[in-house]
Amino acid sequence: MAKTAPMRLLELMVLKEDISSVIEFIGKKESFQFYTKKKIEKKEDDQEAQFTLDVDRHLYDEIKNIAIDLNISSDSIDITSARSPSEDDRTKLTQILAAYNDLENNLENAREAAEKVSSAVKEANAFSNLKVSYSELDHLSFLSLKIGRIPAENYDQLKENLEDDAVLVPLGDDKSHVLLASSKKGRFALESILKEYGFVELEIPKDFMGVPEDVLDGLKREERQSLDLIKELEHQKKNFKETNENEILRLLASLTIAVQIEDIKNNLQSTELVYRITGWIPKSETDSYMKELDEITEGRIAIREFEPYEVPAVMSGKEQVPVKMNHGKVIKSFERMIFSYGAPLYGTIDPTPFVAIFFTILFGFMFGDLGQGLVFLLVGFLMAAKIIKFGGWEKFGPVFIAIGITSSIMGLLTGEFFSNETLLEPFSYWITGLFGNAHAPILKLMPSQDPNSIKVMFAVFGVAVGIGFIINSIGLLLNFINNLILKRWGEAFFGKNGMAGFVFYWYVVATVIRVVVFKHQIAIYDWVIIGLSLFLASFAEPFERALAHEKPLLKDGVLAYLIGGVVEVIEVLSGYLSNTVSFIRVGAFALSHAVLDYMIMILTNLCGGPASVGGIFVLIFGNVIVVVLEGMIVAIQVIRLQYYEFFSKFFHETGKEFKPFKFELK
């Protein structure tokens, strides 16, 4: 059984001239977790570094905004192949920024000019209908006139509201420019109404009499020229993107690294000439790591290596050693199920391989259908090949492949292929014929009138409980081994999850099997072993404290000890029973999956059978529902069983996940 990866603490003393290259090396290797980051006050001689950071951060913000504005996706950036920017890079970036800003300014000016010309054309078109001298109308003694703009959508409401109080005359096709006429005495009431509808009065020359045709044509010509200029500038912007896209992405990655390097530097302990870096690294990488650092700095670096027990904060319990697991691609895809619950303690058994096996078996047992399993298998391969990408889930491709295989195998046993139980009959007859009694399917789970179906149902429940017994037992063994590793002798041998609980659990199950299956009688020694193991599992306090050299042996007195022991007896009995019986749900889900497939075929036949349009629709829709919804439900149930039944046996204290520093495109 593999343990978590051994770790070492490295202390690096780096000269100021090498610090940036060292941090860049650390970020690209992605195997160094910083141990201490002590914020220090800025010194006078740090102003140059701060100025560099401010400049790079400003350039980073600018190039990021350009990438967003040009709709340049950063998904293709490989941050690991990028390097921190040189002075030539900064010069090149400054040139790109200047060219882009000039282009944007020209485009903005062209749009503003076009907007002004368009407004002039719009107003000229509006007033082209006015052929009477405005001064003549304005001198009418009994009439008050107003010319102005309103939102076009307010025109109908304004006209309805005015009724007989004023005359509303549209001056343009879109009703945004209007002339209003009312009696002199009603002009104040009119002004009040107009304010509610967003009326803006225009200044009109007294001798104004419409717009000459040549002026209107000139304005329209100028509008077309403005729009042509905008199109030309937008075309230049498109060419700018095509010409500079790769360079923009490269510089964006470089500046991302530069900004993060400076952020790290500003949080390191340092003197005027030397920086101090400490951090955790896997033991397997220390030799090559130190050699490469020595080459990068040309020997201008001091490195010290510490084992975890040599770190005072670790020995005092103030600091935990980060936990890293060494897995291949398949097992690694199951790691998140562990870390989402909590990291195991450093140096203990790595439970990930067990989780991978249990998850795969339990899911396949509950979700037996060859066709639906092949869907999971196909999705897994597409995710592994990164053809299907959504939210980073492609890293779980091996998980889908694994459950696709076990679901397909279970489907072959139950004879189900996309809910159909007849297509796999030739295979079932061939397999069962090898053993003398040919029949289909190999394992009958779908509802039927066969009297043996009840036996099959109980057999399924029995297998599910058996799987639960194995999972619970392995959890207890892991707890025992982990406590031995951590030298917690009391917790290893006593308590409900210690060896005493393990012996009680196994012996009770073995005794039940002997009595039920082999018709044995319970002997005196059986009761002695069961009673003694139950006592040591429930009344464990003084034994645990004695092995830990703690006094007094009964921390809260005899009475509290006895009451607590009695309660613990109930907890042990009910806990082991519920932990085992809980796996009956595995069999229940296996049967319910078969029932769902059975119902899909019933509905398909009611709609005309698999050869009809309605039957095909029901068959496809039903299988999609089963794959998506039941697939999620089964996955949740498997995770729940592992969290509450398996992890609860040994996950009593969590460690700290190893999270090495790496450059990220933020």
Could you describe the 3D structure shown?
This protein has helices at 19-29, 47-69, 87-127, 134-138, 155-162, 187-196, 213-265, 286-296, 312-315, 329-332, 335-339, 352-366, 370-384, 397-414, 425-433, 453-485, 489-493, 499-516, 524-538, 541-547, 558-581, 584-606, 613-650, and strands spanning 7-15, 33-34, 143-149, 166-170, 177-183, 200-201, 269-270, 274-282, 301-306, 322-323, 656-657. It has 666 residues and is of the alpha+beta class. A hairpin with a 6-residue loop joins β4 and β5. The chain is extended and about 120 Å long. It starts with 6 loop residues before the first strand and ends in a 9-residue tail after the last strand.
Keywords:
59% helix, 666 residues, alpha+beta, single chain, extended, four-stranded antiparallel sheet
Would you spell out the secondary-structure blueprint of this structure?
Elements: E1 7-15, H1 19-29, E2 33-34, H2 47-69, H3 87-127, H4 134-138, E3 143-149, H5 155-162, E4 166-170, E5 177-183, H6 187-196, E6 200-201, H7 213-265, E7 269-270, E8 274-282, H8 286-296, E9 301-306, H9 312-315, E10 322-323, H10 329-332, H11 335-339, H12 352-366, H13 370-384, H14 397-414, H15 425-433, H16 453-485, H17 489-493, H18 499-516, H19 524-538, H20 541-547, H21 558-581, H22 584-606, H23 613-650, E11 656-657
Parallel strand pairs: 10-11
Antiparallel strand pairs: 1-8, 1-9, 2-8, 3-5, 3-6, 4-5, 7-8
